[in-house]
Amino acid sequence: MTGQRLAWVMAAAVLVAGCGDKPQQNGDSQVVLIGQVSPLTGPQAHLGKDNENGARMALDEINAAGLTLGGKKVVLEMRSEDDAADPKTAATVAQKLVDEGVVGVIGHLNSGATIPASKIYFDNGIPQISPSATAVAYTASGFKTAFRVMTNDAQQGTVLGDYAVTKLGAKRIAIIDDRTAYGQGLADEVEKAAKAAGGDVVAREYTSDRSTDFMAILTSIKGKSPDLVFFGGMDPQAAPMIKQMKQLGMKAKFLGGDGAQTPNFIDLAGAAAEGAMASNPGLPLDAMPGGSAFKAKFEAQYGKIQNYSPYAYDAMHVLIAAMKRADSSDPAKYLAELPKTDYQGVTGHIRFDAKGDLAGGAVTLYQVKNGKWQTLETVQSGK
Amino acid sequence: MDIFLQQLINGLVLGSVYALVALGYTMVYGILELINFAHGEITMMGAMVALSVIGALALAAPGLPGVLVLASGLVVAIPVCVALGLVIERVAYRPLRHAPRLAPLITAIGVSIILQNVAMLIWGKQYIPFPAILPQGRHTLYGASITDVQIAILLLATAIMLLLILMVQKTRLGRAMRATAQSRQVASLMGVDVNRVIAATFAIGSALAAVAGVMVSAYYGLAHYYMGFLLGLKAFSAAVLGGIGNLGGAMLGGLLLGLIESFGAGYIGDLTGGFLGSNYQDVFAFFVLIAVLVFRPSGLLGARVVERA
Fold first, then answer.
1. Average pLDDT, chain A
2. Which of B5, B116, B150, B222 is most worth mutating to test chain A (most A CB atoms within 10 A of its CB)?
3. Residue of B nearest to A176 (CA)
4. Residue B98, preceding bond cis, omega within 30 degrees?
5. Of A41, A213, A271, the CB nearest to B125
6. Which of A212, A259, B172, B217 is the most exposed place for a label (fewest CB within 10 A)?
C-alpha cells in the first residue's frame, strides 16, 4: 500500500516537474499521451484495426476542436499497441504504455487480454475504458480504474440463453466455446440462463481460437440431436463452424454472440451463413442515436466498420470528457470524474454502475437473411 | 454406428491432408536430415496464391465451371510454390549445407517467419473466403454424410501418394533420390548430381504442399496468412509419428493423426463421462505421439531402411 502511494507521489512529481521524457512541453501546448491497445496482428487484426480507427477518429475530432486543460492548450497523441489478442503480450504492452507515460487507455479488445492488463493499469493508477471486453471478470476484480462502454457477458448471455429457449423454442441446446475468457464466459452465462428457462443442455464442447476444423465435435453433437447450437467465440471460427454444420447435414439452428455478428462472418461462411443468428450488445448501428452520422464519417476515412469502432470512439470521448470536467489530464484527478460519466454517445446513453460496467446495456439479436444481418429485436438486459 | 462412420470420414479427410504435407517434411529430412520448418508456410502460400487466382477468375468469368476455376488456381499455385521451394533451398539451406545442423534449422524458422509476414503484407491480416464455386453436393452413407469436396480430397490425395511412391521406386530420379538419401557422397561419386536431386526433392515437396494448401482452403472455405503454422506443426508431428524420413511412414502418420484427432475429439467426452472434454483433442493426439515415440523412438515405420527417400 505504501509502495503504491510512493509510486503515486513519484508519478505526480514527474508530472509537476515536467522532467520526464513524456509528456513533454511542445511550444505553448502540452502533449498528452493516450494509449490504445487491440490485436493489430493475428486472426483478429481486422477487429483490432477497427477499434484503433474508432479511437483515432475521436482523438482527431477533439484535437481539431481544441482542448484546454488547467489553462494550457493540450494536444492529444495516441500510442497504439498490438497485444495480438494474447494475455501475456497484453501485460507487456500495458507496462510499456505505462512506462511511456500515457494518462489513460482505450482497450483492450479481447477480454482475455483486457483482464491481465487491467491489473497493471490499476497498479499505476491509469484509467482504462475497454470498448469491447465483455467478460464479467474484467470489472469483477474491483479495480477502480476499469470501465467499459459495452454490455457485459452476464447481461448478454442471460438474454441469449433466455431467448434461445423462450423465443426460439429450443429444448435441446448444444454449447461450444473457444476457451478464451470471452467465449467461455459468454457460454457459461448462456448455459445458466438456458437451464433457468427450462432448456436442456445436451452437449458442452470446446475448441480453440485458432482452430478451423470442427467436424469431430460437430459429429459428436449431431449424435445428440440438438435443436440449437450456441457458439461462444469469434467469426474466424463461427464461419467455418456453420459451414461444417451444413456439410454434416445438421438441421439445428445456429446462435452466436457478438464475436460472430460481423460482416466478416457472412463473407467467410457464404451461403451457409443464411439463417444464422447472433447478438451484439447495444443497439444496431442504424438504431444508434448517432449511428448514421458516425458511419458516414468513419467509412469515408477508414472503410467498412467491422464491429466495435463506434464503442472505441465513444470510449475516447468519455475519457476526455472526464478530463475536461476535472480540468486536468492527471489520472489521479480525472479518475474521480469517470464514475460520474453521463454521456450521450454514438452508441447510446453511457453511464457506469458501481463496478464500472455499462449501466442497463441493451442486447440486439440479428439473423442473416439474403446475405445480410437483419435486426430481429433489441432486448433490454437486467430484467 | 453412423457417428463412428462420420468420425472415420472426418479423420480420413483431415489425415490425408496431413499426410500430403508430412510427405514434404519427410522427403527433405530423408535426404538432408534437415527439418524444413518453412514447409507449413509453403502450404499457406499455395492456398493464398490459388485463392487469388480463383477469386479473380470467379469475378472475371462467372460462368466458368467451378472445377475448371479450381484447376487454374492449382495450375498457378503449384509453379509458384515450386519456385518458392527452390529459392528457399538455394538461399537459406544450400549455403549452410556443411554448417552444424542447428544453423539450417534456425534459417528454416527464419524463412517461415519471413513467409508469414510477406503473406500478411500481400494479402492482409483478414481471413480470405474461398468463393462458392465448388459443387456443394452431399451424399448420405449409412447415416453419415460426405460431401463432394471431401470425396475429391480423398481421391486426389490417394492418387498423388500412389504416384509419388511409383516415382520414387521406378524412375531414374527416384533412384537418385534413394541413393542420395543413403549417402550423399557415394551417390555423387556414382555420378548423381546431388544438388539437382536435392532441388528436385524440394520442388516435389512444395508441389505437394501447394495441393494440400488448396485442399485445406477449399475444405474449410477460408485461408489466412497464419494457417501454415498449425498445419505444419501437425504434419511434422505426423511425419515423426510415422518415422521421419520414411515415405510410407508420413502417409501412415498423417492418416493416424487425423483419425486420432477426430475420434479423440468425438469420443473423449463421452468415454470419460465429461471429465475430459473435447478441449483435450490436441493433448490426446500428442499423448499418442509421445507414447509411440517412447516405445519406438524412430516412429512407427522409422527403421533407417533403404526405402527412405
1. 90
2. B222
3. B278
4. no
5. A41
6. B172
For residue B86, being part of any structural domain is answered with: yes
In a domain, B281, yes or no: no
For residue A213, the chain B residues in CB contact (below 8 A) are 14, 220, 261
* pLDDT reported for residue A1: 43
Distance between CA atoms of residues B242 and A362, nearest Å: 54
pLDDT digit string (tens) for A75-120? 999 999 999 999 999 999 999 999 999 999 999 999 999 999 999 9
Condensed to tens digits (0 to 9), the pLDDT of residues B64-108 reads 888 899 999 999 999 999 999 999 999 999 999 889 988 999 999
Q: What is the ipTM of this complex?
A: 0.84
Range of the domain at B124: 14-227
CA angle B297, B300, B303 (to 5 degrees): 70
Render pLDDT for B40-65 as a digit per residue (tens, 0 to 9): 999 999 999 999 999 899 888 888 88
Contact A247 B145 (CB under 8 A): yes
Identify whether the C-beta of residue A134 lies closer than 8 Å to the C-beta of residue A108. no
Number of domain units in chain B: 1
- Give residue-wise pLDDT tens across range B141-184: 888 889 999 999 999 999 999 999 999 999 999 999 999 998 99
Residues of chain B with Cβ-Cβ distance to A244 below 8 Å are 220
DSSP label of B150: H
Q: Which residue of B has its CA nearest to A211?
A: B230
